[in-house]
C-alpha cells in the first residue's frame, strides 16, 4: 500500500469520529501522519484497570466492549463501542489511569493520537466542542446504566436491552423484528448484570408467552408493544 493511500485510509478513519468532522483537510493530513495504528483480534485485551493512558484512540473498524469486574469477580459490560467511537479522552483530560477493561469483540483497527497531539487539538473550538459532546453523551449513558442496575428489575432491564438492540441491529421480518446479531445469554447477563440462569428463565418465560422467539443465539421480538410496556414497568424488587 502506498504512503498516500495509507494516509487516505487514516483520514477516513479519523472522519468516522464526529470530533474531527470540522477540521480542515490540511490539519487532518497532519493528524493522520502523526497517528499510530493498532490491530486486535477478537477477544484480545486492549487495556485493563490501572494501565496508564497516554493516547486517544479512534475505532476505525471493529468493535470493543468496555467492562469492569464486580467484587465477586463477575464481568459487567458498561459500553459497546464501534466505528467512530473514541477511547481515552476522559483519562487524558483528568490525567488518570484506566478504570475499566477494554476487549476487542471483532477484528479491530484503532488509530491512536499521543498526548501531545491530543493536547495540541484542544485550542480548536470545533474539536473541543465535539469532545465535550462525546463526554456528555457517555456520561448520560453511564447514568442510565447505573439507574438500570440500581432501581429497575431484571425484567425491565432485559426489555430495555432488547429494544436498544432492535434499534441498532433490528431487521423486520414477517411476524416481528429479529435482532440480527448472535448474542449469548452469558453476554446478555454481562450487559445487564444478571446471571445466565436468570436471563434464561426470563427469556423462556417470554418465549412461552409468545413475546419473543429464540433461535440459534438470535432473538426475534414478536410483540414489540408488550416488550416496550415491560421496559416502562414500575419499579420492582430485583
Could you name the key traits of this structure?
four-stranded antiparallel beta sheet; alpha+beta; Arc Repressor Mutant, subunit A; Jelly Rolls; 238 residues; 9 helices
SSE layout and pairing:
Elements: H1 3-15, H2 25-34, E1 36-40, E2 45-47, E3 55-61, E4 64-69, E5 75-81, E6 86-87, H3 89-94, E7 101-104, E8 108-114, H4 115-121, H5 125-151, H6 154-169, E9 170-173, E10 176-179, H7 185-192, H8 196-208, E11 212-215, E12 218-221, H9 224-231
Antiparallel strand pairs: 1-8, 2-7, 3-6, 3-8, 4-5, 4-7, 9-10, 10-12, 11-12
Helix pairs in contact: 1-2, 6-9, 7-8
What does this structure look like?
- This protein has 238 residues and is an alpha+beta fold.
- The protein folds into two domains: 3-150, Jelly Rolls (Sandwich); 153-231, Orthogonal Bundle (Arc Repressor Mutant, subunit A).
- It has helices at 3-15, 25-34, 89-94, 115-121, 125-151, 154-169, 185-192, 196-208, 224-231; strands at 36-40, 45-47, 55-61, 64-69, 75-81, 86-87, 101-104, 108-114, 170-173, 176-179, 212-215, 218-221.
- A four-stranded antiparallel β-sheet has the order 1-8-3-6.
- It is 45% helix and 24% strand.
Amino acid at each position: 500500500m502506498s504512503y498516500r493511500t495509507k494516509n487516505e485510509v487514516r483520514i477516513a478513519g479519523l472522519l468516522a469520529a464526529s470530533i474531527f468532522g470540522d477540521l480542515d483537510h490540511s490539519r487532518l493530513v497532519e493528524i493522520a501522519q502523526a497517528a499510530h495504528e493498532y490491530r486486535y483480534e477478537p477477544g484480545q485485551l486492549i487495556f485493563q484497570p490501572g494501565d496508564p493512558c497516554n493516547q486517544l484512540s479512534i475505532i476505525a473498524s471493529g468493535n470493543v466492549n468496555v467492562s469492569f469486574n464486580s467484587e465477586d469477580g463477575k464481568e459487567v459490560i458498561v459500553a459497546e463501542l464501534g466505528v467512530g467511537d473514541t477511547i481515552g479522552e476522559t483519562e487524558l483530560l483528568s490525567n488518570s489511569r484506566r478504570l475499566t477493561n477494554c476487549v476487542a469483540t471483532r477484528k479491530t483497527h484503532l488509530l491512536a493520537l499521543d498526548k501531545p497531539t491530543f493536547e495540541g487539538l484542544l485550542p480548536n473550538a470545533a474539536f473541543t466542542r465535539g469532545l465535550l459532546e462525546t463526554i456528555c453523551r457517555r456520561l448520560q449513558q453511564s447514568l442510565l446504566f447505573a439507574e438500570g442496575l440500581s432501581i429497575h428489575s431484571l425484567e425491565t432491564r432485559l426489555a430495555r436491552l432488547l429494544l436498544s438492540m432492535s434499534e441498532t441491529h433490528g431487521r423486520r421480518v414477517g411476524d416481528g423484528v429479529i435482532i440480527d446479531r448472535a448474542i449469548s445469554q452469558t453476554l446478555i447477563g454481562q450487559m445487564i448484570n444478571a446471571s445466565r440462569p436468570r436471563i434464561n428463565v426470563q427469556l423462556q418465560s417470554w418465549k412461552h408467552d409468545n413475546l419473543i422467539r429464540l433461535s440459534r443465539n438470535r432473538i426475534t421480538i414478536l410483540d414489540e408493544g408488550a416488550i416496550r410496556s415491560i421496559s416502562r414497568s414500575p419499579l420492582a424488587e430485583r
